Amino acid sequence: MTRSSLDPEQSRPEKSDPEQSRPEAILEVRNIGKSYGSVRALQGVSAAVGPGEVLCVLGDNGAGKSTFIKILSGAHRHSEGTLLAFGVERRFEHPREALDLGIATVYQDLAVVPLMPVWRNFFLGSELSRGRGPLRRLDVAGMRSTTKHELARMGIDLRDVDQPIGTLSGGERQSVAIARAVHFGAKVVILDEPTSALGVKQAGVVLSYIARARDRGLGVVFITHNPHHAYPVGDRFLLLQRGTSVGDFAKSAITIDEMTALMAGGAELEALAHELERP
Amino acid sequence: MTRSSLDPEQSRPEKSDPEQSRPEAILEVRNIGKSYGSVRALQGVSAAVGPGEVLCVLGDNGAGKSTFIKILSGAHRHSEGTLLAFGVERRFEHPREALDLGIATVYQDLAVVPLMPVWRNFFLGSELSRGRGPLRRLDVAGMRSTTKHELARMGIDLRDVDQPIGTLSGGERQSVAIARAVHFGAKVVILDEPTSALGVKQAGVVLSYIARARDRGLGVVFITHNPHHAYPVGDRFLLLQRGTSVGDFAKSAITIDEMTALMAGGAELEALAHELERP
Amino acid sequence: MTVAVGAEIDERPTRAHPLLTVLRRPEVGALVAAVAIFLFFSLSTQAFLTPAGISTWLYSASLFGIMAVAVALLMIGGEFDLSAGAMTGTTGLIVGVVTTQWGLNIWLALVLALVVALSIGAGNAWVVMKTGLPSFIVTLATFFILQGCNLALTKLITGSVAIQGMGSVPGFDQVKVFFGSSFPFLGMDVKISIVWWIALTALATWVLLRTRPGNWIFAVGGQVTSSRQVGVPVLKVKLGLFMTTAGAGWLVGMLQLFDVSTVQATTGVGQEFIYIICAVVGGCLLTGGYGSAIGAALGALIYGMTLQGIVFAQWDNNWLKAFLGGMLLLAVLVNLLVRRQSGVRA
Amino acid sequence: MTVAVGAEIDERPTRAHPLLTVLRRPEVGALVAAVAIFLFFSLSTQAFLTPAGISTWLYSASLFGIMAVAVALLMIGGEFDLSAGAMTGTTGLIVGVVTTQWGLNIWLALVLALVVALSIGAGNAWVVMKTGLPSFIVTLATFFILQGCNLALTKLITGSVAIQGMGSVPGFDQVKVFFGSSFPFLGMDVKISIVWWIALTALATWVLLRTRPGNWIFAVGGQVTSSRQVGVPVLKVKLGLFMTTAGAGWLVGMLQLFDVSTVQATTGVGQEFIYIICAVVGGCLLTGGYGSAIGAALGALIYGMTLQGIVFAQWDNNWLKAFLGGMLLLAVLVNLLVRRQSGVRA
Amino acid sequence: GCTATESGAGGATAPGEQVTIAVVTHGTAGDSFWDVVKSGAEQAGTDLGATVTYQGDGDPVKQSQLIEAAVAAQPDGLVVSMANPDGVKSAVEKAVAAGIPVITINSGLEKSLEFGAQTHVGQSEYIAGQGAGEQLAEADVSNVICIIHEAGNSGLEERCKGAADTIGATVSNVQVDVANLADAQNTIKSKLLADPSIDAVLTLQTGVAVAASQAIDEAQSPATLATFDVSADVTRLIQDGKMLFAVDQQPYSQGYLPVTFLTLQKRNGDVVGGGLPVYSGPGFVTKQNAAQVAKFAENGTR
Ligand SMILES: Nc1ncnc2c1ncn2[C@@H]1O[C@H](COP(=O)(O)OP(=O)(O)OP(=O)(O)O)[C@@H](O)[C@H]1O
Ligand SMILES: Nc1ncnc2c1ncn2[C@@H]1O[C@H](COP(=O)(O)OP(=O)(O)OP(=O)(O)O)[C@@H](O)[C@H]1O
Ligand SMILES: [Mg+2]
Ligand SMILES: [Mg+2]
């Protein structure tokens, strides 16, 4: 197979952007690992993402992708290895700490509160206030208009930002979550499978947001099952399998077909293609 | 664009399987429609599926795919049009009625009860009994071994069919649901986005189950967002957009690229491809 | 071709010790707590382990237990019934009023009370299912209504708040054989209600674990939409559960009536929470879909032992409630601990 | 490039009448029910609309209302507090005991009682958050423990089950100005607790709708993991909510103590459900994440009007509970209907 | 045998044998009347060097269970109140059959001997109610409300019934919740406002009496107030002229006397009463004797 030509060690020194070097990485993990009780969900994974760069994380179900980003975003603490944010070693105790550093995460379950209005969800945890002392209050008008404006910038025209976010379609909810991350001056946006439940069109919209965030100079960590979604926007590709890293490739070092083949089951899928035909 | 060459009316008379005619369809809908209060989720959709045939339903988020299959499976009643099962007009009042006719459905949310053991979930609603009169009781041993056996036939080797199904991975749960539908002598299996949350490998496994069910002579209605999943197994393709049918194509009448292009947003996605590139 | 999806999961470490299967049962925590409390009172008091002592706390536990088992089934099915306590009073009062005041045949009176109870249970189910309101609120309303009717109607018809002269109703002694008698066993004077309790716990366990309706009870409590989708008759199951609870209320009402041959308008008020407590201590989740009948019976046993054990220990009864509160907290914590140890998420 | 995801949804028919926005508020159902009950008793009884009558039912509503508003906040935040009723007794008893028995300065006694209340609230929150046990069970245990301690400690210290001679404690009249006084207003004799009630309802509404903690309360009740993920300090919010409820218990305890100038060991027992009922009638969901403070206040108003209206109407008092049950059912049904009409899913 | 003298610390020097007396009443924990009964019984125990256990539950089934649990511990004597005599019949008879001397207290006088009890101390709530009714009738009232603070409590119902049967005026019952005195006060006020012809209020509990007195003030009603039971606040109200009288069933002696009798019986073979009941009341506290009662009430013994 093409495996040897894709040796991770070999491809590591490659850069998608030559003027940018690892020390400038916004987020970097070295040999990171995580166990849930007796289950080792992740071990010995290293990766980094810099500004204006898109790191794609690919892997099977249960490969540890969500675990990986939960460590980056402070939702879980890692049990091995080191995590560097802006070159400084960190151990997040609470998602708040990561957020305060500009690490914004769009979770697989979107982290929205279905019964709350769109604008309240948009600003949840980072509400705008006006006034001072006991008169300090939410800047409702400001938040409403900012939400409307930010969503419009993303190409979403909601009639009513007061409707509960639970009434939006999956794609719209996804977009709100991404717009939120971008708006709060995030340095890195982490997205966990934002496209899996989306139609072709909606997935395209989300990909375009990712490209836009990248063009604004944000770092993006993008998790997906779908090589067809990852390849167009990704700069680097981290492949996970059963909790360990299979490789970390620059875009120039791998083609979409090689990537598909390398993902666990790629080989089986080819074999399968015959079987799917009518006997 | 290629639109005119793909005129649905033109392609309708085409058959993927010439020796099989519509009157033999297991399930058929004519001009079916459904409103939720003031929301028209579906209108004027016609389609049919025969034995040994795979009907793929594709469409955007909110296009009405889930609504469509909820009508077929008796979970919702249609508000317009006619539904024929085995040539007889029906109006299902309860999923039970559809089930009793051999219409088995694997829902998007899988319809499993997370806290219950795998084997109880497998047989839920169709439990095996032994004994008679007041001594009539569940055939626990029988259900356990059948579950183990049926799952093994699908290539899933569970150590313990007594573990709560909530502890299985997404792909495994999906497989249990499909194995259940196949086991209960279904004539039609309806699958709502079984592959969206799955990795490449797991998705391949599910596709192979679909092919296997088809080869056993079952009709399959397969809903997906992903043309790459639909095309290899599908015989006919029903494209929905905002609740109406865009077309119903035989496999011979359409290529995968045409299908992708035809799906809502296909055109936009092409435009997008440029944008995704670095500026 | 066999794509071994399961195979890759096998790699991850897991334990599947047979003991663990036992430890994962919902009632294990309650069993541990029950044994602890049994030992505590056996060692610290004289009377607790005497035949007379045992029959006393068993009797106390049995009356709570019958209801707790029914309430546990209902809770596993995802619903509450706060009218369960008042129901024991309602049924007793109906039998009392129609026999002592209107001279109805006592057997007919029993049937009448049962029919009324089942209708109220069915009514609860109907309102809950039709409106989608939480059963907590619907049955709270039923509770208030029953409580009010118990008092007002009894007062209206009999002129007092308790039924008198029940013992001299013709046929009373025949019925008492079934509901109010006791028999000697191993030196104990065993009340018939203990037999009812054990029989019903066994029956409920059998239904839950070995019949189709039992499977459905777990299903509707665990995930009601999924159950509906696979063809479980949700409405019938819930109807059955509410009627079972009401029926158990009738049974307890009769057991009490024929034991003491009187019933008061306030009978049963405030007991509804004890049933829920017993079920929760016995491992039922408040959110439904998980629990066991034996667990609820053990919960009732814990409650009965504590209640009478405090009497045997001659503690000041002013502290009773505080003890019960502490015991409840302790029992649920033990339960939690046992379940955490065995790796079950609560 | 603008991919108009929103545009396609616009096509589907929807109504967005401004009236609908108002009708979608959680408290609308309660408002409709409150107006109906107000009209009913105004028309059917003489005394209900007299100044003296109004001040009576307003006072009754205010005592339930203060707690109902606090309990509603807690319920919106996804938790229950069944110890809220007993807490009103505990705080009153503490003040009573330390002033009448130990001669402590009355202001200090107030502060002491508040500190104890807040600690108990914090304790509830701590146990709930650390163990993950449902607050229903944890606070039920607290309720029992408080109930037991109220009785046993009061008896132990004072030798009786009620506080006597509170009125002659030095400084009583000064404190009474804040908690037990009344003032004339539009011909009514308005109790100060009504002012507290209105002020707290306004404050709670302000907090809920216009401050960050309010936003967080909705969030932790609606989806606790999501809230944690976006950085909401879940523990602090729940801690604050349990302490608010305990603080409200203290306030109501003081209002009662300085109004009737005596307090008994059983004070507050059984009231916890009335608070929950008021909150639910006012539109709060039992499952959390939805509700309003004004709604809870309206729920209390409905309860207060019904309670006193029945007396004004001179109906047979034995039916009281039955009326209340019927009223509860009616109110939640009206609520449901109004919300269904406006297209909000309950 | 010897007389009961002052018992030393720990009762080690108690004369005669160790005596255990079980008291099981139908009073719920925290009920102010039964709390005084309990105090009386416990004081008798302390005074005589006897061990006294006290339990109570208003539900006849539960009360029966408590009696049976007490009997299982084989006490030297049993004291039972019988609000609903049928309800505890079999439990009492079991105790008698087990050879335990039983004395009934408070209510249940009619059935006391029939069930095998030696004697009865106190008198029924109904008779006490009749006493209150006679006193109120002397005050020439025509429209009375009787405040029931615990719905369905048979003792309270009996008190109101007794009053109603002798008073010769309209008596209507009003239900309030003793757990919420502020609201009880409010409800009484509502009743007074709704029916200005009410000219007497009869309460059945001391806390409610205090609340009712304030309700009468606030409603500016001319109604006369009377109550059952005595407390320091109640004697103060009587002294201030805000209350006409308080019915004193002397619950303390209902607890103290039977414990004394049973202890004597164990230690000295005395069977007191001779098959006749011992009446413990009712006494009436009025302006004349209020000051004298007040200091006992302070101790929680009246
Ligand atoms: N809280 C937890 N406790 C125990 N095991 C866990 C927990 N969370 C995840 N795991 C296990 O860790 C492994 C990795 O899970 P993770 O969610 O990171 O996978 P994933 O790559 O995101 O999968 P998917 O594509 O299905 O989202 C799985 O085997 C999973 O069962
Ligand atoms: N119970 C309901 N009440 C009101 N509207 C509904 C309901 N269920 C679905 N809808 C609406 O009907 C439309 C079609 O929904 P449906 O679930 O069929 O879409 P779908 O094609 O399955 O989308 P997805 O790909 O996101 O699963 C959507 O606009 C949705 O908001
Ligand atoms: Mg994941
Ligand atoms: Mg769908």
From TrEMBL, chains A, B:
<dbReference type="Pfam" id="PF00005">
    <property type="entry name" value="ABC_tran"/>
</dbReference>
<feature type="domain" description="ABC transporter">
    <location>
        <begin position="27"/>
        <end position="267"/>
    </location>
</feature>
<protein>
    <submittedName>
        <fullName>Sugar ABC transporter ATP-binding protein</fullName>
    </submittedName>
</protein>
<keyword id="KW-0547">Nucleotide-binding</keyword>
<keyword id="KW-0067">ATP-binding</keyword>
<dbReference type="InterPro" id="IPR027417">
    <property type="entry name" value="P-loop_NTPase"/>
</dbReference>
<feature type="region of interest" description="Disordered">
    <location>
        <begin position="1"/>
        <end position="23"/>
    </location>
</feature>
<dbReference type="GO" id="GO:0016887">
    <property type="term" value="F:ATP hydrolysis activity"/>
</dbReference>
<dbReference type="InterPro" id="IPR050107">
    <property type="entry name" value="ABC_carbohydrate_import_ATPase"/>
</dbReference>
<dbReference type="GO" id="GO:0005524">
    <property type="term" value="F:ATP binding"/>
</dbReference>
<dbReference type="InterPro" id="IPR003593">
    <property type="entry name" value="AAA+_ATPase"/>
</dbReference>
<feature type="compositionally biased region" description="Basic and acidic residues">
    <location>
        <begin position="9"/>
        <end position="23"/>
    </location>
</feature>
<dbReference type="InterPro" id="IPR003439">
    <property type="entry name" value="ABC_transporter-like_ATP-bd"/>
</dbReference>
TrEMBL record, chains C, D:
<dbReference type="Pfam" id="PF02653">
    <property type="entry name" value="BPD_transp_2"/>
</dbReference>
<feature type="transmembrane region" description="Helical">
    <location>
        <begin position="318"/>
        <end position="338"/>
    </location>
</feature>
<keyword id="KW-0813">Transport</keyword>
<keyword id="KW-0997">Cell inner membrane</keyword>
<protein>
    <recommendedName>
        <fullName>Xylose transport system permease protein XylH</fullName>
    </recommendedName>
</protein>
<feature type="transmembrane region" description="Helical">
    <location>
        <begin position="106"/>
        <end position="127"/>
    </location>
</feature>
<feature type="transmembrane region" description="Helical">
    <location>
        <begin position="133"/>
        <end position="153"/>
    </location>
</feature>
<feature type="transmembrane region" description="Helical">
    <location>
        <begin position="28"/>
        <end position="49"/>
    </location>
</feature>
<keyword id="KW-0472">Membrane</keyword>
<keyword id="KW-0762">Sugar transport</keyword>
<keyword id="KW-1003">Cell membrane</keyword>
<feature type="transmembrane region" description="Helical">
    <location>
        <begin position="56"/>
        <end position="76"/>
    </location>
</feature>
<comment type="function">
    <text>Part of the binding-protein-dependent transport system for D-xylose. Probably responsible for the translocation of the substrate across the membrane.</text>
</comment>
<dbReference type="InterPro" id="IPR001851">
    <property type="entry name" value="ABC_transp_permease"/>
</dbReference>
<dbReference type="GO" id="GO:0005886">
    <property type="term" value="C:plasma membrane"/>
</dbReference>
<feature type="transmembrane region" description="Helical">
    <location>
        <begin position="82"/>
        <end position="99"/>
    </location>
</feature>
<feature type="transmembrane region" description="Helical">
    <location>
        <begin position="239"/>
        <end position="261"/>
    </location>
</feature>
<keyword id="KW-1133">Transmembrane helix</keyword>
<feature type="transmembrane region" description="Helical">
    <location>
        <begin position="192"/>
        <end position="209"/>
    </location>
</feature>
<feature type="transmembrane region" description="Helical">
    <location>
        <begin position="273"/>
        <end position="306"/>
    </location>
</feature>
<keyword id="KW-0812">Transmembrane</keyword>
<dbReference type="GO" id="GO:0022857">
    <property type="term" value="F:transmembrane transporter activity"/>
</dbReference>
